Each structure stands twice: as C-alpha cells, then as structure tokens.
User: Fold this.
Amino acid sequence: MPAKKPFYITTPIYYVNDIPHIGHAYTTLACDVLARFKRLDGFDVMFLTGTDEHGQKVEKSAAAKGKAPIEFCNEVSERFRELAKFMKFSNDDFIRTTEERHKVSCQALWKKIEANGNIYLDKYSGWYSVRDEAFYAESELQTASNGDKLAPTGAPVEWVEEESYFFKLSAWEEKLLNWYETLPETVLPKSRKNEVKSFVEGGLRDLSVSRTSFSWGVPVPGNEKHIMYVWIDALTNYLTGAGYPNTDSEKFQKFWPADVHMVGKDILRFHAVYWPAFLMAADIEPPRRVFAHGWWTNEGQKISKSLGNVIDPFEIVDEFGLDQVRYFLMREVPFGNDGDFSRTAMINRINSDLANDLGNLAQRSLSMIFKNCDGKIPDQGQLKEEDEKILQAADDLLPAIREFMDMQQINKVLETIWKVVSDCNVYFAGQEPWALKNTDTVRMGTVLYVTAEVVRQIGILIRFIMPDSAEMLLDQINIDGDKRGYDQLGVLGRLKTGTKLDKPEGVFPRYVEAENK
Ligand code: MSP
Assistant:
C-alpha cells in the first residue's frame, strides 16, 4: 500500500487570559472538520491546537486573580482541553507554550534566525498594546473622546522605551510578495490576501522581538534579561508541534511545512507576514496556506465581555446538541465571511436541514424497509432513469466536495451534500413507494433500495461534520466500521441487499422551544 499522504493542520493557540468562548470553539471546529475529512479521505493527519500562555497580558491576568502565572495558566488551559473533549475535537496533540519542548524549540529558532544575521540589538521606543500584544506606529492610532490614544482595534496603548532585539522584517518584503503568489493559494480568502499584500507593498519596518520589562516568557538565548516577544514564541508552537528542532526526525520530515494554519481575520498579519518571514529567515519552508475566517457577532452585536453577550459553547451545545451546533456553525456562513449567531437561525437549521430534510428522508425510507421488507435491504432490481439519476448525483458528491474542501469552502461542501438530500426527498415523494406496497413490491423495493443507498452515502459523507449522528445512522443500516471511509469499500461502494436493519430511530430530533413543549 502506498504511504498515506500527510496533512498538518493547526489552530491558533488561545490566550489563557480568558475562558473559551464561541469564537475559539469556531476556529477549532473548522480545523476539526477539515482534519476529520482528510482522515476519512485517507490522509495521515496531524491536527494541533493548544494554549498561548506567555506575555504581559497573561501575566497581568494572573496577577489580577492573585495567582502565580503558571497556576493560572494550568487552570485556564485545562478549560480549553475540556472544551476540545466536549466538542469531540479530534486534535492529535495539545501544545502549551509553557512546556519545555516549546522553550527548546523557540530558542533554537531564535538562534538560527540570529545566526543568519536577521536579528540585531537596538532600542525600541513606540506604542504597545498589551491587550493586542502588538506594536503600533503613531500613524495607526486613533484618539478616544477623552483624548487617550487607542490601537486601531480600540485597545489601550502605552508608550514603551526599552532595549530590544529587532528582527529585520524589512529585508523580507520581496520574498513575502513572491510567497503570496505561490500556488495553490498561500493566503485565503483572496480578499484577505490582497489586504496582506498591500500592507507589505506599503513597506515593512523591522520588528521589535524582545522585551525587558516583564519576565513571563521564553528568555532570549545568550541574553536572559530579554524575554522573547510573545508572538515569536506563540507562532513557533506550529514548529514545536511538528518536532522542531529535530528537523531530521520522521515527524518533522513528514509534517512540515504545515498544510493549513487556520486563523481568525484578526491575527492574519502575524501569520501571513511575520511568520513566513521568521521561517524564511531561518531557512525553514513557510506553511502551504494560511486561511483567515471571519468573526461571529451575537444577534447582530459585537461579542464582548463588557456587553455581557459572550456565547458559552458549553451552554449552546447543552441546549441544541453537539452535532446541531457543529452543523450550524459550519453551514450558516460562507467560510471566511463574518457571521451572526441568532437563535432563530440556529433553530431553523436544526428543524429544516436536519430534522425535515435529512432526518425525514432517513426515517421514512428506513422505516418502510423495516416494516415492509422483512427488516432487510431489498433487491435493487431493474433501475429506471430516475433511479440512476439520483444515484449518480450521490456518486458525484465526493469529487465535488473534495474540491471545495481543498479551498476550505466548508459551507459549500454542506450545501452540495444537502442539495442531494433535497433531490432525494423529491425523488422519494415522486416515486410514492407507499402506493406501490399493494401494486408492485418489486418496484417499491427498488425505490427503497435507491433511497437507502443515498442515505448510506450521505451518512458516510457527513461523518466529518456530525460524527455522532452519522454513526447512529450508519449503525441502523449495519454498515461495518471499515466501510465508512471515502473509498471503494466505503462511500464509493454499494449497499448490500439483505443487510439487516435495526429498528430505525429518528437521528435528528426537532427543536421545540421550552415553553411550547
Ligand atoms: N494567542 C493568539 C494566537 C496565537 S497563534 C500563534 C490569540 N489568541 S486568542 O485567544 O485571542 O484567540 C484568537 C482566535 O480566536 C481568533 O484568531 C479567532 O480564531 C478566534 N476568535 C475569537 N473571537 C472570535 C469571534 N467573535 N468570532 C470568530 N472567531 C473569533 O489571538
């Protein structure tokens, strides 16, 4: 058997200054969905997530809680691991930047960049925002109504003057501009790539990459009063996860460069400008792609702690169901755009796409087989044109959704699958198998076979998005565990006549508002 192709996907690592909310869950979910898809499609996947635990912001949050930084990090980081378990994220590793393996990796990368002549010591004087952990030029700042200077994100800034190491970012403009044009697309969506490109074309200034005014971080090798800038530390997690600095290791050879760094649009510049420049400066290949997704608002409002409208992923999953939330978040918004979280939209998706469309299709066809065909999948019999047509539509799904997945167009994947669900409902209703019960049981068998076959294929195809519901559905049709992949054995195969069914149970319940129950 040929070796499986590797696929390495990463989430941003989350700051531990705050507990996880819907935004964090969203990014990791998107990666989980991609990772599961690729595994089902025969890839050897490594999916990495974790927590970003150093820097001034975390140090301050720990102090505000009266805790030692590491004690505080342990607690909040644990909450992110709980979320991953709770949402059935299939990450292969969870990295914490306070781990020894990561310190070793950061220091090795630093030394390599420095040895290549890309780091020099100077003095930084300028604006810094602790909330954003970012440096800003005077020209980028806004003025608040009370006269205070603010970052473009609205975060407060402070004037910093200290000795600092600098990274020669200005030397990498041309190499970066070339990298953006490497195919297949290194930065997506395209509109975001254009933003990043014009930022680079506008000219890059060297970047301050160390601080001396606090101590919670990785010391600069050879000058330990300097702490590495938290972003160089954080970005390096992607290398650490692949086994860096052991570049000769099987793991590193296999998984680097990363296939996709998934990030929110807020942190694209760090990933699509600084990160590839750091890597190239250390003679390491930059990632194959950075994808920036959009932000969620809550019922039309920006999500913020001060507005008190933060959405807790644990709560919404408890209320609506895990697979339902996973489906909604990935289906509702063209992936890459901003989206609005609303209860009405969530309930619509659950009741219409899941309960009515897919749920009914499966339940009606499987129940009819259970009752009228001795609980066994009937003979396929003689296929008519309409039968062939719907089977062909199902068979065409995998190549179509592969292409969308390769561009991270997750909502398009789901739309494409649901188009076949809806066509199959039209087919089933049009064929009226219930009316054939007394007139033509052979034809009834064919219609039920064809519908069950489409349900089987959809059941396999949706495993990446709704793992539990898909398994329940496939269990009811008694599909073997090794016949649930995206291959000849699995989705590309055919349902076996005579396969015994379990009593069909509705897999996608309707959502009924509590007061109407
Ligand atoms: N620690 C840095 C990332 C370092 S990666 C080397 C960081 N952490 S964060 O905790 O602030 O998480 C940021 C990520 O959370 C965003 O990039 C985005 O992926 C996600 N989101 C946070 N709020 C969000 C929304 N309201 N909507 C969608 N995603 C959002 O930045």
User: Anything to note?
Assistant: Residues 12-15, 23-24, 26-27, 52, 234-235, 237, 263-264, 266-267, 295-296, 303 surround 5'-O-[(L-methionyl)-sulphamoyl]adenosine (CB under 6 Å). The chain has a mean pLDDT of 96. The longest helix spans residues 343-372. The longest strand covers residues 119-129.
